Amino acid sequence: MSIQQVFDQASQEYDQLRRKFVPCFDDFYAAALSLLPRPTVCGDERPIRVLDLGAGTGLFSAMVLAAISQVRATLVDLSPGMLEQAHRRLAGLDERVCLIEADYLTADLAGPFQAVVSALSIHHLEDADKRRLFARAHGLLSPGGVFINADQVLGATPQVQEFHHALWLRQTHQAGITPGQMAEARRRMAFDRLTTLEDQLAWLREAGFVDVDCHYRNYGFAVYAGRRQSAPAL
Ligand SMILES: C[S@@+](CC[C@H](N)C(=O)[O-])C[C@H]1O[C@@H](n2cnc3c(N)ncnc32)[C@H](O)[C@@H]1O
Predict the structure, then answer these.
(1) Strand, helix or coil at 161?
(2) Three-state SS for 114?
(3) Pocket of ligand 1, candidates 121, 186, 193: which has the most ligand atoms within 8 Å of its Cβ, to mutate?
(4) pTM of the model
(5) Domains of the chain by range and CATH?
(6) Which residues, 6+ apart, have CB-to-CB distance to 34 below 8 Å?
(7) Tens digit of pLDDT for each residue in 126-145?
């Protein structure tokens, strides 16, 4: 089974189980939202272009669109099933939203964007592809633009990783995840390629980002970001 098929299959139930599978759901997405660019002058209605990589059912994009009325969002995902749910979720926002069914590593994406965001998707890429994607995101941003990734990260040592995973299993059990739902999740997790936070922060700097930092962490969940250098003042 491919990653596309796994997410197509999960697309119907994906949203209703999110809070159970992401124990820190509210704080995690709120931290990512807090990092988005906002108009500095009251009444500035200029569009803020946001690209969402691996947008899935549009869960994060919907929060972004609700929080900032100037946002025009481009959602990219390789699963038609997940995008179908996004289409339903964002019905009525047609003028602010563009859905693209494609692999974000190779898709034809017309920048520049003021923000490139991603939630719980980049951890599916092999390390070399993560580095390639960071360079790509940097190139798609306008000067001063921000890259924000809310994602799962690997513990710094095997022991830390084991602790995070055991804790997550207890939390999901307490939240009421059934053995069947966990078996489904494990099929998706077969496509996980977790990397430490430290490595990813270093790769962002290597790609040219500045102000690189992790702004939120809850065990295996992290929100980190970097900014494309602003153009020098004339
Ligand atoms: C766990 S879901 C996250 C969805 C959404 N961002 C959220 O926060 O709920 C991961 C999504 O990434 C997509 N994905 C994974 N690798 C991708 C790639 N290379 N190109 C486009 N989409 C990808 C999957 O199809 C899936 O919809």
Answers:
(1) helix
(2) strand
(3) 121
(4) 0.97
(5) 3-227 (3.40.50.150)
(6) 215
(7) 999 999 999 999 999 999 99
